[in-house]
Amino acid sequence: MSRTQPKPESTGRSRAINFLRTELLKRIDGDTSACKFATTRGIFCRGFARFDDGELRRRFAWITRLRQDMSRQELEEIGDRWQLARQDVDGLPIACDVQQREQDMCHGWDDFSNEELSRFYFELTGKNIAVA
């Protein structure tokens, strides 16, 4: 008797992003951005941790220009607060939505392939989906 894995649910990209947004919102509070959450948990896109020190400083040059001796931890904290502030100002639910519009740290949801969105959903829920 052979065992086969059930075929994952197939869903469109927009719906998968809505699933991910919902799952992220369940896990973050109003004091933590999705970027910081991903950084501290080492999941999803890995947040700030996906960039080495030089690249993170380059992406936040408008912050580091004023204080070049800032530690990475300080820069990540300011980046986290900036993401939360932009969410409020733009009326958007999470940092990925902000970055899709702002595109200064990354390109938000546009940075991810369908396969990555599927993997991120599995990381958050333990459930497989196929994003088409």
Structure description:
It is built from 7 helices and 2 strands, in the order βαααααααβ. With 132 residues, it is mainly alpha-helical. It has one domain (9-131). Strands 1-2 form a two-stranded parallel sheet. Helix 1 (13-27) runs parallel beside helix 7 (114-125) and helix 5 (72-90) crosses helix 6 (95-102). The two termini are 31 Å apart. The model has no long low-confidence stretch (mean pLDDT 93).
What is the helix content?
55-70%
Overall pLDDT level = 93
Number of domains: 1
In whole angstroms, how far apart are the ends? Answer: 31 Å
Rg, Å, rounded: 16 Å
Strand content: under 5%
How many DSSP helices? 7
Low-confidence stretches: none
SSE string:
EHHHHHHHE
Number of strands: 2
Blueprint of the fold:
Elements: E1 9-11, H1 13-27, H2 34-41, H3 53-59, H4 61-64, H5 72-90, H6 95-102, H7 114-125, E2 129-131
Parallel strand pairs: 1-2
Helix pairs in contact: 1-7, 5-6
